[in-house]
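call fold(seq) -> tokens
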Amino acid sequence: MASEEAGSANMTEYIQHHLHHLQLSVGDGAFMKINLDTLFFTALTGLIFLFLFLRIARKATTGVPGKLQCAIEMVVLFVDGLVKETFHGNSKIIAPLAITIFCLVFLMNFMDMIPVDFLPWLWGSGHALAGHDPAHAYLRVVPTADFNTTLGMALTVFLLIQYVGIKHKGLVGFFKEWFTAPFGKYAFPANLLLRIIEECVRPVSLSLRLFGNMYAGELIFILIAVMTLGAGLAHVSTYLLGFGQFIAGFAWTAFHILVITLQAFIFMTLTIVYLSMAAEHH
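ret:
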């Protein structure tokens, strides 16, 4: 009984440790904390994105392209075609914006493909070498599993929606629609209420959808890793659990590749749709 309680406590501690951010306090309260790991891996994936695209752009050839150039060209052509079909206004920033969103979100999501213990183990080992307690070496590597990241991106899209709407309709025309669409000018209270709800729902739905899927994916990888936590090589059950862990990890990894790609695609597509709706005259 005592061993079961100890195992349960170790499991809980393991999960909580993996779900704790590397934080910097800048004031009192939970709100006044900066998740340094989120900022670092967001910047890292952004630099990877810039490096890959700049490298391919400089070395692009009209002859037989390399595999990386071919893959990036396929992504660019696909997104450009999607923008032309979806966005009905005139803007030179929509296609580059959509490509940037898809690639950045995909790269941030793809950090979940790194074995769940690898980078935290390296970080903990560095802490131990520096003479610090590795138990307090917290690190989370998936930026989109942090609600701050997804909400920040969603709020940026929200601001872009207002910018595109004002640019295409003018300041007067843009705010006029808040009171006249969709029920006409005599139902302006209902129009205004509906528009406020609509504008608030967009960033909330964008951020929660991406965050929820990535947080769940990260948590499932942690739960799979827990299957052999503290197991000894002398027990037969360890090998059975290890085999089950391998099968579960392989199956979830294969499925999660689809999830991370689909979530990047959904975030990009909804952004294009919202911007297209903002540019349309009602």
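The first helix runs from residue 2 to 18.
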